[in-house]
């Protein structure tokens, strides 16, 4: 595990807000010389603290303005059933994130769809047809007052 100091945390904060910042702009924001800033960013990349850069997309602008978090319980708790379920979720374009969790259910999904009708179709005709699924609970997102996913 890499030990982060305050400067590293400030670099990470700025890059999470805008991963396209030039090194010169980033250095100015954190009050560091560009060469020192570049060395630190490269070290954060080398050690895996920064694992990549990506574009943050607006689902609504892409026709996927409906968002739900869905909990899924499996009928059996075997490795084979988990693998089969995870493969089915990997094939579903509506499933943007899939987490295996502990507790009373096995998975939490982040599902994006065009609208409620498209979500219902996914829920009924895809997710509900996966043989390993025993329970489904949907939580419809009405707003996102905080979202810091990078």
Task: Provide keyphrases for this structure.
150 residues, alpha+beta, Arc Repressor Mutant, subunit A, Alpha-Beta Plaits, 2 domains, 4-stranded antiparallel sheet, 4 strands, 20% strand
Q: Averaged pLDDT, please? A: 95
* CATH architecture group name of the largest domain: 2-Layer Sandwich
What radius of gyration results from the CA coordinates?
20 Å
Number of separate strands? 4
Low-pLDDT segments: none
> Could you state the oligomeric state of the chains shown?
single chain
What's the level 1 CATH class of the largest domain? Alpha Beta
Strand order of the largest sheet: 2-3-1-4
CATH topology of the largest domain: Alpha-Beta Plaits
Return the domain count: 2
Structural class: alpha+beta
CA-to-CA gap between the ends?
A: 20 Å
Number of helices: 5
What is the CATH superfamily classification of the largest domain? Lrp/AsnC effector binding domain/regulation of amino acid metabolism (RAM) domain
The share of residues in extended strands comes to 15-25%
Q: Percentage of helical residues?
A: 25-40%
Shape: elongated
Q: Helix and strand string, N-terminal first? A: HHHEHEEHE
Q: Tell me the major beta sheet.
A: 4 strands, antiparallel
